[in-house]
Specification:
CATH topology: Ribose 5-phosphate Isomerase B, Chain: A
Order of helices and strands: EHEHEHEHEHH
Structural class: alpha/beta
Number of domains: 1
Number of strands: 5
CATH superfamily: Sugar-phosphate isomerase, RpiB/LacA/LacB
Helix content: 40-55%
Strand content: 5-15%
Length: 148
Amino acid sequence: MIAIGADHGGYKLKEEIKKYLDEVGIEYKDYGTNSEEKVDYPNIAKEVSKAVQNKKCDKGILICRSGYGMAMVANKFKGIRSAPCFVEEAAKYSRMHNNTNVLALGADYVTVNQAICILRTWLATEFEGGRHQIRLDIVDEIEKENMK
């Protein structure tokens, strides 16, 4: 199960991604927004991040104009690792090396086809573990120290 959410700037891309997820049979829960009417992106990012954090969903997808605002909010949640990805290779390494669980997309910087390719790569890539797990353990310790 994937949690998906977008602000008004990412709404159209979110709707296209939902069509793709329907086509390939991947279940998702849509956390909004449901139009191009202005909304505040932190509220959408919060709901998607909480769904992943509380294990209601396995992964999350957040979309705004740049991808940065959504990723910043998502990373405020303990256990969430989010990265904005604009190319497939970044999506691949964000999973392989950083075990990201929330993908952030910038609707102003990717086409629908590019976003779907990025998403497909992100979903298909497994975390390598090993030396990368050691580094994520350090990140987890930093998170424990600083996120009270």
